[in-house]
Amino acid sequence: FRPDEGSEGADGIRVRVPVHRPEQTLTEAHSGVLLAGADRDALIRSLRGEFTLIPGEGAELREISILQMVRQAVPQEFEPGSDNSISLMKTLYASALAVRLGSPGLTEQQLAELTDKLLACRKSDGGFAWFAEMNSSPIVTAQILDYASGLRQRGLPIPSRLSEAIPSAVQYLDRNYFTDTDRPWWCGRLSLDQYLYVRSLFASEPFGQKVDRDFRSSVRSLLVPGGDLGLQGAVFTKARRLLTLKALASSSEGLALARKFGIQLFAASRIRKTIERDTKSLTQYAVEHPHGGIYYPNAVMPWRGLIESELYAHSVLCELMSAQGQKEIAEGIRLWLMLQKETQAWDSSPATVNALASVLDGSAETLDTRVVALSGSATLPFEDVVATGNGMKIECEYYVESSGSGAGVRGLASDSGRVLLREGDVLPVGSRVTAVYRIWNEENRSFVRIVAPRPACLRPVRQLSGYWSGSYRSVGTDASTYWFETYPEENTVLEESFYVTQSGIFHSGIPVIESLYAPHYRASGLAAPAFRCE
Questions:
Q1: Which residues contact residue 194 at a Cβ distance below 8 angstroms, ignoring those fewer than 6 apart?
Q2: pLDDT at 80
Q3: What is the pLDDT, as a whole number, of residue 76?
Q4: 99: exposed, middle or buried (C-beta count within 10 Å: 0-12, 13-18, 19+)?
Q5: Cβ distance 513 to 381 under 8 Å?
Q6: Measured between alpha carbons, how far is 451 from 453 in angstroms, rounded to an integer?
Q7: Which pTM does this prediction carry?
């Protein structure tokens, strides 16, 4: 401090200014699927050879078999989390699967208490509510019946008190479908294909509803169309139609129910022909996944509904292909289902136990298949970093908003709209800059985090943390972090705008994206060009 002329005295303070090296610690990972009988050492050598940020020889190895995944996943379902009927039924199903695996399931007392809570959700009309305090729901009741059918088909035990409640639940489903016609399908009402599928699983239960000509015509058009089978591209609906027809054709009670639905003349023959044509069609939609297994792209939109999820659809397709003698496709789906456990928080889905049950029906070779993952970390200067990724990619570009002439921004070409910033460009303080993060994700993943560092000269236009663009955005002093509960596949773009607030030369860190649920699926990009601001 220097006083004005004529004044006496002076003072000063000592300031420490920390200077950090322009470097960042990054993690690189690569993974692969080891099929039963394949060369394990060759796969590990190949994976180690893919590393670019660190020497592959130093990467840490993690390995787990499909059967080990199932053994780990089943006990996780023992704690329902809440007393809603879906969670309680999942727990009951998981306990039965555990016993089949040779592990201890729930005790008799625990099963009795669980059954009490589940039956508390059963209402006087025979249907099940989501929670005991709520009204009966057709979609919830259908899910409970679907679980019960899965237990029966696999010869797994159902508590006798719950088994006694099944006939009235089926009758509730019949009454509700034909009387509650004002409720839209997206508000808990069953669609025609959903209702026919669940109802066909319980063909031995009496059907006493009066059906009109329109219903019979709709059933015939859906299940046994005369010419073109329709449903092009509607993979899951076609699979559900096929399972419905198989259930109806498997017994005299099923054929009798089909005739009541409107399939009368040569019912068995018409059903058989539709089954043959649908099976041939569905095999053509199956696709090999690049990391192993077989799946049906866009079988449904991910996480669309209670009995419409991607996980549930593939469980149904797996059982269908197995029943139709398409062993290769069925085993491929089982492998794909368990690989999803490595990328998605699938234990939150009601279809988890359906998937576990389908996988356990697989061959010894499928259950012995292993996922091999290697990962390692290194601290590197920005200039030594190269882009790397396993199932993901991320890159960042900065653009300055131009009024059309580029005036006041030295080194930028005149253009309207946004202009890409490059090394050597000079920005005036006060400019508005937009960061564009271009992301590629190989498949849908759960719990994804994106860390986007920024140069110290930039201040976010939106400085408050909160929910933003489908994610929770946390604004830090040096980076913005985005948290996505689910992240879609293929190409997406994130954008964030800033103001230039300081003069000088500034560097930025490396953007990183990772699946927190399966951290070997991750990617890091490149450092952005150095910012020079005046």
A1: 142, 240, 307
A2: 67
A3: 65
A4: middle
A5: no
A6: 6
A7: 0.65
